[in-house]
């Protein structure tokens, strides 16, 4: 046997076997590491293609004290202004961007909430360039990673839920929308209309959003349109803002005179309206006269506008609000059933409306009734009444009304 092993044939066979074994075993270390990662390490990865989650994680890292232990950071600027038109405008308004710091590229090992965690941040280059952040820790359960990410989401959502996002067509890419500004949400009670008007509209919208399956059963497009009409200052735009605030919706404002709104682009714009948005077209009577463009700036045809409103590309679940000061000027084709489902007139203040407007400034019920009785015949708009009351009570921001000052200054028991 020993002689056989000394032969060239046997030696060649053993070398071949050894080579095959080595070739097979070369993957074992990698397999062991991969097996160990799978069963003993939990990892969460997020990349910058998911704008919300990635931004939420980066912003949360900036506020977490444990993550300030690293000595290599990546800075990301976040605009602080409510107007998103340009950085120069923010700077002129004294609202410089803020730098959010998070662990830089590479591997970082640190303790977070009493747990050993390692964070890897890397730049990925494929057909596009994006960042990836991976968080890992020992243990098979991903509960801690899930909870960590949820805290980041909650922190971001709490900031967003306190604001109202207003979108306009992107001037650089005419087929999509950009956030133009952030505003404070306003309660529906802040818009004083005739009794029950605002509440009825809110209930109608709530019913619409709850009726998706019913629309599908009937084969009716799940869309809804409202026309708000009345003189200037009657609260049309304020009402839309308040309804969006109550329902936590976006507002997308569309000017038909915008140079990027053409017959070709409007279909794309309406198809790209962010979900759960109110689409607002103000002063719609100002853009067309007898189906012709009212002025040279309007590059959209009347038929193109109607086709876009009816187009199959228009997203399901969208709600359209059109406002006008002159409902009589609108072509009936624009506001027919199917395009406009509800017409709501916002007119001059009635006596009850005047009383409630007065009570916003002064809780004196007797004075409110007298004020309402006196001014009801004058046909005042809510904006006119508000201006009158602000002057009457000397309202300036940070200064209490005169009636409040008088009550404080009055001697007790006198």
UniProtKB/TrEMBL annotation:
Its main location: membrane. Its EC number is 3.-.-.-. Residues 222-350 form the AAA+ ATPase domain. Residues 16-191 form the BCS1 N-terminal domain. It is a single-pass membrane protein. Keywords: Hydrolase. This is Putative ATPase YjoB. Belongs to the AAA ATPase family. BCS1 subfamily. GO terms for cellular component: membrane. The keyword Hydrolase applies. It is found in: Membrane. The keyword Hydrolase applies.
């Amino acid at each position: 046997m020993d002689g056989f092993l000394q032969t060239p044939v046997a030696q060649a066979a053993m070398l071949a076997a050894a080579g095959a074994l080595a070739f097979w075993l070369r993957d074992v270390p990698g397999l062991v590491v991969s097996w160990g990662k799978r069963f003993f390490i939990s990892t969460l990865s997020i990349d910058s293609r998911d704008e919300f989650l990635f931004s939420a994680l980066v912003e949360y890292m900036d506020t977490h004290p444990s993550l300030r232990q690293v000595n290599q950071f990546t800075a990301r600027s976040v605009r602080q202004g409510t107007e998103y038109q340009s950085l120069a405008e923010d700077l002129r308004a004294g609202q410089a961007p803020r730098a959010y710091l998070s662990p830089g590229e590479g591997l970082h090992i640190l303790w977070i909430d009493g747990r050993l965690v390692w964070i890897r941040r890397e730049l990925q280059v494929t057909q596009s360039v994006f960042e990836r952040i991976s968080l890992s820790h020992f243990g098979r359960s991903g509960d801690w990673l899930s909870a960590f990410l949820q805290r980041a989401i909650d922190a971001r959502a709490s900031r967003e839920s306190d604001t109202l996002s207003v979108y306009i067509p992107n001037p650089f890419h005419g087929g999509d929308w950009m956030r133009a500004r952030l505003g404070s949400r306003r309660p529906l009670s802040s818009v004083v209309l005739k009794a029950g008007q605002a509440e009825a509209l809110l209930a109608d919208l709530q019913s619409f959003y709850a009726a998706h399956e019913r629309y599908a059963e009937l084969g009716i497009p799940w869309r809804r349109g409202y026309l708000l009409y009345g003189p200037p200052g009657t609260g049309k735009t304020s009402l839309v803002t308040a309804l969006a605030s109550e329902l936590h919706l976006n507002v997308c404002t569309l000017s038909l005179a915008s140079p990027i709104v053409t017959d070709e682009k409007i279909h794309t714009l309406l198809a790209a309206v962010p979900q759960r948005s109110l689409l607002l077209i103000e002063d719609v009577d100002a853009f067309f006269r007898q189906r012709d463009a009212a002025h040279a700036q309007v590059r959209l045809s009347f038929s193109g506008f109607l086709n876009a409103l009816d187009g199959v590309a228009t997203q399901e679940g969208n709600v359209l609000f059109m406002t006008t000061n002159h409902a009589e000027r609108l072509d009936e084709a624009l506001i027919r059933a199917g395009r406009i489902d509800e017409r709501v007139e916002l007119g001059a203040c009635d006596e009850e409306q005047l009383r409630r407007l007065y009570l916003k400034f002064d809780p004196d019920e007797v004075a409110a009734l007298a004020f309402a009785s006196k001014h009801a015949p004058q046909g005042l708009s809510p904006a006119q009444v508000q201006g009158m009351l602000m002057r009457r009570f000397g309202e300036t921001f940070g200064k209490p009304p005169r009636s409040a000052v008088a009550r404080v200054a009055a001697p007790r028991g006198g």
